[in-house]
Each structure stands twice: as C-alpha cells, then as structure tokens.
C-alpha cells in the first residue's frame, strides 16, 4: 500500500510526465519544488548537531525551505529554470547513460576523466537545448523526471539512502526498466500531441497564471509568449 508521501510523488510524476510542458509555468515550478525539497533533504544531515533542533524537525524544515525556495526560483526565473533543468538532465544522461560506454575499458584517472568529460558534455548539450529548443527540452525533461517518480524508480527510500550515505548512487535507476520506459514514452508522446492538436492553448486558458509563460513553440513560440 502506498504511503501518502509516495502516492503524492507518483501523482506529481504522472502530472509532469503527461502535461508538464503544456502548462510549463506549473511544471517548472513543481520541478523546482521537487528538486529543492530533495536538495534540502540531502543537505539536512550535514547540519545535524550544529543546530539544537530535533533531527526529524530539522529534516522537515530543510525539505520545506528547500522546496519553497526551489519552487520560487523556478517560478521567478522560468527561462533560466528550463536551461538549468536541461543541463541537469543532460548531465545525468552524459554521466550515467553515455559515459559508461566510453569509460568501460578505461580505469583510474583516464576512466574518471572520460566520465567527467561525458558529464560536462551532457550539461552543455542539455543547457543548449534548454535555450534553443525550450519546448522539446521541457517535454523530454518533464517526461523523464515524471516517469522516474510515477514508476517509482525514485522513491523516498532512495533519497533517505542518498542522504545517509552522502552519495547520489542510490538515486541512479535503470533507464531501460519497462515501467519507466512506458510512462516516459507515453508521457512524451502525449505532450507532443497536446501541442500538435492545439490543446495547449485550451489548457492555458483554463489555468490561472499559466499564460505568464508557456512553451508553445521552440524559440519562436518563446519570443511570442514572453512578449505577450
């Protein structure tokens, strides 16, 4: 049986995967909130003992503050948030999906250098896509992040392990897992269909505040939206 926290993450993941880019002002803010809350959770163990507060209260406070800060920054600087999301997703793909192919036969400093190079290349490519192809970046990024939570490839337990071990290793998951791939592919195709058949305009018209910024088209659409 799903706990309220896990159920909430699954629901948020489905929302991101299937309509994230269509209502980007909400999706980017939600992504910022999730990333900020996760960062706060990972940071909390570093200050335990430095502040005279119960560990559980301190963790809850760090998660709350991190989530609010991440959500606010994402909402306030949407264009930069999309660029940052693209960079993070690109870096993740470069380090854990592309890098191992090049570093498989290398060891020591050479292997580390190849992985670092693949990570930096992924960050650069992701950021470039975020700047030039905003809509495409949002579709892929929100579908990927949403699928990770909706398929439970990432769970609260994984974040607990990462916080305890101060490493991102527990947050890595199999990108070829059937459940993850199914949500990712269906979510991305669904979002592309929303744009293709004009449902984005209808969705934006129904949701308050969404007209502030919406990834209607790559580059040209961004300019029109920002100038509106």
Along the chain, the helix and strand elements come as HHHHHHHHHH
**What structural category arises from helix and sheet content?**
mainly alpha
How many distinct helices? 10
The largest β sheet comes out as:
none
Distance between the termini: 46 Å
Rg measurement, Å: 18 Å
Question: Level of helix content?
Answer: over 70%
List low-pLDDT spans.
211-217, 220-228
The tally of beta strands, per DSSP, is 0
Strand content: under 5%
Principal-axes shape call: globular
The chain-level mean pLDDT equals 75
Give the topology.
Layout: H1 4-19, H2 24-43, H3 55-76, H4 78-103, H5 108-132, H6 134-150, H7 156-165, H8 178-196, H9 199-206, H10 220-227
How would you describe what is shown here?
- With 228 residues, the chain is an all-alpha fold.
- Helix content is 75%, strand content 0%.
- Helix 1 packs antiparallel against helix 2 and helix 4 packs antiparallel against helix 5.
- It is globular, with a radius of gyration of 18 Å.
- The N and C termini lie far apart (46 Å).
């Amino acid at each position: 049986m799903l706990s309220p926290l896990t159920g909430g993450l699954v629901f948020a993941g489905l929302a991101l995967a299937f309509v994230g880019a269509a209502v980007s002002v909400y999706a980017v803010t939600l992504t910022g909130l999730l990333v900020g809350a996760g960062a706060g959770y990972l940071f909390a163990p570093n200050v335990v003992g430095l502040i005279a507060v119960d560990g559980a209260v301190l963790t809850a406070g760090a998660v709350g503050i991190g989530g609010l800060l991440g959500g606010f920054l994402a909402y306030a600087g949407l264009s930069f948030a999309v660029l940052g999301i693209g960079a993070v997703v690109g870096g993740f793909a470069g380090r854990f999906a592309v890098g191992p192919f090049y570093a498989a036969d290398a060891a020591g400093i050479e292997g580390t250098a190849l992985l670092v190079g693949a990570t930096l290349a992924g960050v650069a490519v992701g950021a470039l896509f975020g700047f030039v192809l905003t809509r495409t970046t949002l579709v892929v990024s929100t579908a990927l992040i949403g699928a990770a939570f909706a398929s439970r490839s990432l769970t609260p337990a994984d974040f607990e392990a990462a916080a305890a071990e101060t490493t991102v290793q527990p947050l890595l998951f199999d990108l070829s897992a059937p459940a993850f791939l199914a949500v990712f592919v269906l979510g991305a195709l669904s979002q592309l269909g929303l744009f293709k058949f004009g449902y984005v305009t209808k969705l934006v018209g129904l949701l308050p505040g969404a007209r502030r910024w919406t990834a209607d088209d790559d580059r040209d659409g961004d300019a029109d939206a920002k100038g509106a």
